[in-house]
Structure formats: C-alpha cells, structure tokens
Amino acid sequence: MPQQVLGESLRVAIHAPAPLIRAGLAGFVAMEPRLREVPRDRIREADAIVVAVDVADASVLDLLPSLCDHPGARFLVVVSDRWQADVSLARHRGVRAVVWWDFCSPDVFVRTVRAVAGEDGNAAHATHTVAPSRHRAPLSTREVAVLRLIAEGRQCDEIATELSYSERTVRYILYGAMKRLRARNRTHAVSYAIRAGLI
Q1: For the structural domain made of 10-124, what CATH number should be given?
Q2: What is the DSSP string of 122-171?
Q3: Architecture of the structural domain at 141-195
C-alpha cells in the first residue's frame, strides 16, 4: 500500500456482496469529501478496506487475505447479524474495527474509516495494531471476558449463563468497561477494544 500524504483523501475499498448495502456504503464514501472509493482492481492502494457481511465468522476471516494480500491491509468489518469469529485471529488478519450495520450512520462510518486508516500516513500503513491510549486504563479480566462475548454476538443473558454471573452483574461489568474506555455504547466499546488490542 502506498503511503498516504497528509491532507489527501483517504482511499476506501468496499467489498459487500449485498447490492443495497454496497450502495449504502458507497453513498457514505461519496458524501464525504475526505474519502475516495477505489475500484476492486486497485484494492492494494486502499487505506481502509470495508467488508460488509451478515455474519462475521471464520470464512469471512479466510476471505480477507484473498481480497488483499498486502501485509499492511487494514479492514473495517460491517456486520448485519452476528459476530462469530475469533477476535485475536481477526486482529491478526488486519481487522481494526467492527461496526454493526444498525449503528452505521454516515458519521459513524466516516469516523471509523478514519480511525482504521490512522490519523496520519504512518499510522495508516503500520502493520501493528493501534496502541491503547495512555488515558484509557487497561480492562479488568471480567471486562475483557464480557467484551469478547459481546464481540461474538452474545446477549447479556447468554453471557451471564456462560460466565456464571447474574445478568445485572454482566450489565454492571459492561457499563464499567464502557466508562473506562469512554465509549458511547457497547458497539463503540467493542470496536475500540479490538482496535487497541485489548481483547
């Protein structure tokens, strides 16, 4: 991937088998002057590759290297239904953020693409993950466990059963993680935690 020059538009590639979702994501890119879509045959030039799927599972992670085999490729996965993939493998394959389609407004999309690509040219093409901010304390073991299960698409009652907590305790742990990460909602908390390598 070529180095992005500061001030240039971020190059975004989109892979979305569902035509309506692809059109929606392309529309988000077209509405934002700081973003520019690149065609599939130039995907290696992309600063961020957006992959939209119903269910994020092992087959989706296997698909990523075939979309772009560049070691610095950085993916944003937009999920409509469920996350069933291994989080650490997702990070290894270049996934830097996850957004649920229900929460994927133009503003959320643009901010997340910019975060995936990095704030500057060097960050956009780094092969390592974004380091946690010094101002955000590391997560506790319980918070990591809850966020990992949420990333897999589990509901609070399912998490409570799996971890042998009450549902109220799970919600308390989740709230604590969101507060610690200064996240606006659970999706933001999971996305940040994945990007920062906390889960």
Answers
A1: 3.40.50.2300
A2: HHHT-SSPPPPPTTSPPPPHHHHHHHHHHHTT--HHHHHHHHT--HHHHH
A3: Orthogonal Bundle (1.10)
